[in-house]
Amino acid sequence: MSEMNPYIPIPVTIKRAIIETDDKLIKTFDLVFNDKKDEERFTYLPGQFAELSILGKGESPIGIASSPTEKGFLKFTVMKVGLVTTTLHELEEGAVMGVRGPMGNWYPIEEMKGQNVVIVGGGFAFTTLRSLLIYLLSHREDYKDIICIYGARNPGLLCYRDELDEWAKRDDMKLYLGIDWKFGPEGPIEEAAAKGWEPVSLKDPTQTKLGKGKYKFTAFVPQLVQAVKPAAKNTYAIVCGPPIMIKFTIPVLTELGYPPERIVNSLEMRMKCGIGKCGRCNIGSKYVCKDGPVFTFKELQNLPKEY
Amino acid sequence: MVKEKLREIAKKLFDEGKVKLVIGFEEGSLPMRASPAFIRSADQVDRLTWNSFCENNLASYLRYYVSSLEEGEAIGIVCKGCDARSVVCLLKEGQFKRDQVVVIGVKCQGMIDWKRIRDELAPEDIIEAKEEKNEIVVRTKSSEKRFKKSEYMYDNCKECAHREPVISDHMVDAQEGEVKGEEKWEKIRKFEQMTPEERWQYFVEETSRCIRCYACRNACPVCYCTECFVDSTMPYWVGTTLEPSDVQVFHLIRALHTAGRCTYCGNCTQACPMGIDIAFLVGKLSKDVEELFSHEVGVDPEEDPPLAAYSEKDTNEGFA
Amino acid sequence: MKPKVLPTKELGAFVKELVKSGLVIGPTEVKGVTRYIPVTSGDELALEYTVCMSGPKGFLFPQNETLVQFEGYVNSAVPSGDMKEAKPQVLFGVRPCDARSLVILDKLFINEDYVDDYYKAKRDATSIICFSCNEPRPTCFCTAVGGGPFDTVGCDVSMSKVEDNYLLEAVTEKGEKLIEGLKDADPSLLQIKEKLKKQAAESIESKVDVEGLPQKLKGMFEDPIWQEMTDKCMGCGVCTYLCPTCHCFDIQDEAVDDKGERIRNWDSCMFPIFTYHGSGHQPRDKRHQRMRQRIMHKFNYYVENFGVIACVGCGRCITECPTNEDLRDNLRKLKDLEPSKVE
């Protein structure tokens, strides 16, 4: 990293591009390095991100969705929001683009060893959590119980759906999926139930009966966390999602007994250089690109409320 | 005295509960400067002042502060002639309602081009400046110099045809005497006598100093788009570097966007740190609008904005 | 090395010699606009201006800088070159505040996290001949932020005007090489210089005191004073474009057909879209939040990260602000304020 100019994108080729969600706004790309040496140099850990670079249009900071245990490619899940991402969505397999990274810090995989891990994700922010989950499953003996809680507005907006079904079948982790109860697949909550999405007890989500094999619920993510009640003792909670989801999930976790230093977030910010020089992505004295994007809730409490 | 009258009016407005905020001017922290002041209660009105350095167009602030008003509340604003016309312009564009502003008009005598005085005395620094009836007296470390106000006024102030604000809820006469200035559009008329090549040269030379700081845009009361065309990436209308063609396009497009809405207040030239004569570019277009559509910017609150209205009388030069 | 002397009338010849070995950039004045541009002779220099409108920062960190050149269309573009090379250059007549600002920027661009090669290449190829200020301006306050009118921080050579001569003192080895051909100075000149130095520091009028302010600011993030302070700010960005320590930049690609460049441009945190997310979320949509960011960044965050205040007291933001926002007043207000109790 020190010899290479950190501003130059490394050439990669799009090996695979698939549409991830029903609204077609989210696509997942598998990228392969053009030069094997670049691939060997690109060592990363779950939680880090890279700047996806389209020379001629610009760059976009996107969390790495593949785990370092998956060799030979990098996976990125990208939502179409602006110039760069729109151009990216229109590129086909075989197109050449660039990657700068890996950047930022990573989830505390060392500190979590020997502990339970609860992964809470919302919407397409689940992307780096996929990286984390696959990493944990590849080092299964190092970690105790793994619970994954993932919610989206409706089933069509869940990412990695074929993998979700696989994970639901595993017996070394528990998976719970939630869809917003107002926006069931085609309408009201009863129809969602008919399609296999059980409502949680709305009066008191903690009273929900989690039957065997049941993992699909209509619930906002914070309610789903209340229903699942993951025990706080010796457990880390990794929370990643839109600001509103985080805002309501953290109090639930705090009430369950999670101390701020064991609630871990991954933040988003507008970024350009990705290496802490352009001054854009700071929260207080910390740059989200360089000192983050992973912060514990305790660290966030020490920073100005500016995100 | 103007400032006493302003303070009296402002105090009355606060006492009668008519305004939540009065925007005016107070003494600046540097010689030859006055600074926009935001008075929020009757006991602060003594900060208000008036002199020949009150050059900022306070109408630029109105949109920002009006957005925080509750139903029935209003903002008082001290307006010179050009400022009042900007207020009319903004009213016509629906940026706020008439009952949300209380216009305290001041019959303006013209503002002094302090940068010109500063540059003439440079590299010496100005320690103190005093305004007298017809002159500005400036003291540097080595000497004291006098500058005739009528000579050192801003070019657009010299040509002003509307010193008295066209709308006002209260009016204050500025100090004694009428200012005999130049004829309206005098400077631009001279510019029009240049050949197209000469005009282009002038434009290229002026904009060669531009550093794309966008002070001109932010100082302008009618530049208020939430996404300015220079910030757009989809599509990427104009490059963001100092490449001369990009700089020139920025100024040309901004001039076109403000044509027919510009009141020639000169805030853009005043804000520019590189001393570029920006006002003349848009001013020329405003003169064109005035002549083509018989419409003086911001004078008649009832008249439709010329580039947003159709009239049978519109000249169709260029069309059959 | 002994201090050297250069009679004022020989300045032109000295500059001509310097020009032979590389670019020489010095303060000039054209139509009332003062700035640092390359010069070829001593006549073009305008050393009598204490603070130029824009400083020499642009020669280490240009306003527009090509980071990468590339070839190929959007679906096949690859980098074809980066512009890291730098030609030797001498920044002549740089005031101590501007020289200090470059040292402050070094901490950001060259650190153990990442090294900005573009900046570093230019930095290594640059020599700086400072010019002390015999007459600080009314708006200068370098002494309040750790500098001084005769400071030598960041200089290779420190030059002072003493009567009819320039006194040149080498501060670094690089500096020694630049002035080794000159005559040794008479010790009496040094004594006069010390007197001038003392006079200059005492003549600074601006009363600014930032003692303890960085630590105090940490607890003031939610204080309502920021709103009041920003009332008259227009968000025009002039202060950031002229500030010698401002370093925020934007990166844009410009391409025509199958060739293009990725360019970085100076940007300003005072513009609303600076932190505008693609999702539409805008953490700093109010002006006072951006003003707060600017002041906190310079007087608190930079101190926490790098140990120095990112302000050199040059006063440009004060003299050029169209609405007369005065940083000295703002700092005074912040220093004197009793912090209100806000969670």
From TrEMBL, chain B:
It comes from the Bacteria. GO terms for molecular function: 4 iron, 4 sulfur cluster binding; metal ion binding. Keywords: 4Fe-4S, Electron transport, Iron, Iron-sulfur, Metal-binding, Transport. The keyword Translocase does not apply. Residues 200-222, 253-284 form the 4Fe-4S ferredoxin-type domain. Pfam families: Fer4_8. Coiled coil: none annotated. PANTHER family: FUMARATE REDUCTASE IRON-SULFUR SUBUNIT, HETERODISULFIDE REDUCTASE. This is 4Fe-4S ferredoxin-type domain-containing protein. It comes from candidate division TA06 bacterium DG_26.
Automatic annotation (TrEMBL), chain C:
GO terms for molecular function: iron-sulfur cluster binding; metal ion binding. It holds the Pfam family Fer4_22. Keywords: Iron, Iron-sulfur, Metal-binding. Coiled coil: none annotated. This is 4Fe-4S ferredoxin-type domain-containing protein. The lineage of its organism: Bacteria, Bacteria division TA06. Residues 222-254, 299-324 form the 4Fe-4S ferredoxin-type domain. PANTHER family: ANAEROBIC SULFITE REDUCTASE SUBUNIT A (PTHR40447:SF1).
